[in-house]
Amino acid sequence: MNCGLCVWYQFGKYDLNKRGIHKEYCPGCIPRGENCTHMGDKCELLAEGKVRFCFECVDFPCKRLKSLDKRYRTKYHLSMIENLRFIQTEGIESFLAKERNKWRCEKCGRAICCHNGLCLTCDLDVLIQNPKYRWNEQKQ
Fold this sequence. Notes:
The chain has 6 helices and no strands. By secondary structure, the protein is mainly alpha-helical. Helix 4 (80-90) packs across helix 5 (92-102).
């Protein structure tokens, strides 16, 4: 998962709770010295820090990753397996450069969120209209 595209990561990056949006923040797995949120609790090698990327495992892609990949391809139009294969052959820096272009907001240049297709800077008003992200409101 490219943390920079994740709604929970972007909420923290732009500190949107201060702007009336309610969502948990995530600083990303590697910056906080943790293992993969999606796979770390299911994979012993990741949990123990023996691999950084799933492609380093002999079982790549495993059943759990295939399931996660199917969900992300269906709901969010991205493939974690394809991303990992790209990183494996081209390297992390090339992958991140490709992602910056692919998920770039045309208005401000920041990253578009893969979970909702919005730029959380330019499209914040759209997000605010969704009641699942608001807090401290009385029902009328």
